[in-house]
Amino acid sequence: MKAALKTEEGTFEIKEVDRVKIPSDDWVLARVWVSGICGTDLRHWKKHEPHLTCKIMGHELGGEVVEVGAAVSSVKPGDRVVIETLLGEGTCDWCRVQQYNLCPDLYKVRMETVSRAFAEYITGPATKFHLLPENVSYEEATLLDTFAVCLHAQHRSGLQINDTVVVIGAGPIGIGQLQLAKCSGANVIVVDVVDSSLQIANELGADAVINSEKEDSLARIMELTQHKGADITFECVGGEHMQQTLDLATKTTRIGGKVVIVGGFENGNVALQLDWQRLQMGEIQLVFSASYAFHGIYPEMKTCLDLLSKGKINARKMITHRFPLAKINEAFETAQAKAETGALFVALEH
């Protein structure tokens, strides 16, 4: 099969590799039709990471079932599916209670199985394959991983109807966070530095948008919240910008409110300067959110699929660019240069 392998320089090279095979009778093989590029992917772009060299990456995809193991009855060849790319080792305390997003071996297992979207074929347990309704396209399916991350963060936040929410970052996660908060009856303010992303936020229901490079975002948020601050702030940027964005998030959150950290940290110890006294005296909670799994008896990705199929969230409007898999490096360049290209979510057609 064809696959995009990560090079030593952190770009990609299209090569022929051995086609993956079903390892057990409860697994499924699928043909990938569309995959996507998200912020996590971009954090690895053009970075020398020896442990990822020659590896297949990607974790957002829609595809078609090609083959199923003898014990599989939930899907069959020809079915259109979205593939959930979170897979733990299955026997740890967290996996046993469907909190597999917390499995200590999560990344080790998923990177060798379901989290290999930049290829022609993928295999995984049947439980990770969700049937797509006729009104949900493969392209739209690629954003379900993003929405599931956002839904998990919202569940962690305890968001209630009529809450005032600030979303810092208008990338795919931030726009997904906006849409789910609006679905739940919240008032949402979105902060970013890219006008094209803020325009999409506007079109998808933001009550206010703020370009923090053009105005004092903290002063504007205080004005919009009667000088109380937000009930909940979602930090959706992460990475190298975490010092600035998390500092802003803590300052825009009201006394007794919550800051939900959705954006990813860099590896290792990260030193952050925050107004810790205000956080303590104001009992402002810092809530960490990691990927997604189940909420009660429901897989969070399946819940997002239901919302998408009912028209309650909009994935199509978030897809701004499309490239064939053969042009994956050009696609990554476009996604990286979002201020110039207007990119939000870039889809790869296989």
From TrEMBL:
It holds the Pfam family ADH_zinc_N. Keywords: Metal-binding, Oxidoreductase, Zinc. It comes from the Bacteria. Signal peptide: none annotated. PROSITE patterns: ADH_ZINC (PS00059). Its cofactor is Zn(2+). GO terms for molecular function: oxidoreductase activity, acting on the CH-OH group of donors, NAD or NADP as acceptor; zinc ion binding. Residues 10-346 form the Enoyl reductase (ER) domain. Belongs to the zinc-containing alcohol dehydrogenase family. This is L-iditol 2-dehydrogenase.
